[in-house]
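Reminder to self: tokens first, then the designed residues, so the page reads top to bottom the way the pipeline ran.
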């Protein structure tokens, strides 16, 4: 098979499956991993795939997308509800919980409404509204409000967080490449998320399986910085094994 033919075939596989590994492609095309790496580098240079350690991702929807909260609300609702219910089981009365912005963390907020003695720190205006009328005490970080996510970002939000302490931080993500780490499209959002991680004793990523194998613009943290991940049954075996190998506790619901 000519290299051009093999590269076209690889591109079809990447676009169909969303992610490929060098070792798997080597077996499939009965060629060396060195050759496959060269093929992926060529496709990456042409902007047709997104090269990652050990493989490649589809170039579609991996880097700069920043969908609105309303757009994301329509996706994977059942999975997010199940993840939120599992997250709520981890919370104990009297604790302090941090929720960043996002649709999965909004679902977690709904699951926490019945707590009688709980404090929630958040940078998401919609989450504060979601918890209004409940017995949960809410602390908003302050800061500039992003219209797409209703989140507060900037120096004021970061400064507020540095003066607080929390038991657990539930982190929603836009992209989760297990080899690279957790990512978000907005640089200011990433800074606020890192401040949240710094002041929480435990960081738990809450994300449906569609987030895996994707990258966005700004790195939040490496995978090893997490204590736990709560996701759904759609997670691939390779991602599940990689998380466990990285020492991250995984809950699949």
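Designed residues (253 positions):
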């Amino acid at each position: 098979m000519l290299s051009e033919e093999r590269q076209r075939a690889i591109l079809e596989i990447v676009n169909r499956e969303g992610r490929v590994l060098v070792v798997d492609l080597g077996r499939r095309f009965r060629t060396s991993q060195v050759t496959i790496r060269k093929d992926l580098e060529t496709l990456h240079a042409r902007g047709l795939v997104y090269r990652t350690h050990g493989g490649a991702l589809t170039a579609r929807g991996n880097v700069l997308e920043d969908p609105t909260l309303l757009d994301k609300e329509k996706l994977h609702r059942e999975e997010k509800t199940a993840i939120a219910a599992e997250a709520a089981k981890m919370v104990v009365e009297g604790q302090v919980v941090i929720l960043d912005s996002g649709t999965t963390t909004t679902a977690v907020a709904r699951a926490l409404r019945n707590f009688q003695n709980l404090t929630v720190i958040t940078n998401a205006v919609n989450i504060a509204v979601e918890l209004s009328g409940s017995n949960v005490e809410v602390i908003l970080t302050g800061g500039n409000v992003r219209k797409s996510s209703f989140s507060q970002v900037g120096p004021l939000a970061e400064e507020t967080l540095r003066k607080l302490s929390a038991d657990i931080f539930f982190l929603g993500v836009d992209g989760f490449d297990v080899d690279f780490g957790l990512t978000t499209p907005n640089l200011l959002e990433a800074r606020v998320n890192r401040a949240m991680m710094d002041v929480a004793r435990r960081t738990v990523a809450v994300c449906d399986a569609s987030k895996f194998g994707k990258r966005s613009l700004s790195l939040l943290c490496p995978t090893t910085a997490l204590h736990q991940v709560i996701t759904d049954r759609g997670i691939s075996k390779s991602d599940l094994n990689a998380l466990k190998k990285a020492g991250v506790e995984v809950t699949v619901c």
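The first helix runs from residue 3 to 17.
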